[in-house]
From TrEMBL:
GO terms for molecular function: DNA binding. Residues 66-227 form the Integrase catalytic domain. This is Putative transposase. Transmembrane segments: none annotated. It comes from the Bacteria. The lineage of its organism: Bacteria, Pseudomonadati, Pseudomonadota, Alphaproteobacteria, Rhodobacterales.
Amino acid sequence: MATSLKGVQYPKSVILYAVYFYVRYAVSYRDLEEIMAERGVDVDHATLNRWVVKFSTDLAAAAQKRKRQTANSWRMDETYVQVKGQWAYLYRAVDRDGRALDFMLSAKRDKAAARRFFKRAISTNGRPDRVAIDKSGANLTGLQAVNVIRKFAGSGRLIRIIQSKYLNNMVEQDHRFIKRITRPTLGFKAFHSAAATLAGIETAHMIRKGQIAANGKTGFQQFASLAE
């Protein structure tokens, strides 16, 4: 993992356990402080928050590199997350089998944000044959902009765009896990900490769905292996 755990006061296993427990289950930092105390670890909720924010992004990047191959038929949608009392937008995509592809937190819901998300998802997962989206004009124009760039760059076949509420039910249902885990936060205090925490939650969700080779490991062991 790019971010080193060397020099921290607590053992690596303790830090990773705390981070995993927070991003996997619907608990507050004060709840997690009590849980850690029950296991003989005296650590305050502010430190737990710093661990999650500091290490989640690198763990998510490692998960993206190790995840199983995904299908080339996508479902894309966005959901709402509260940051500093304002609504931000979590762009998410899964494949036709419900496997996570990518995610991106954005302060705005517009063509530029949608285009940025699609470019990011394609760079990570490769070009899809088709993408199902809802009736959002911003998502449509954002994906069309990606196709225009591909056309002029001579990057091969264009992406087929399907606007279908029915096909998008899968990703909308998938939002529920993310919303359930974030509910105890009562809203994030800063954009960067929201983005990092959501990266950890998405990683735990990916492991839960079997997208990382288990090799007999538990969910936590798979999560911890991302730091190796």
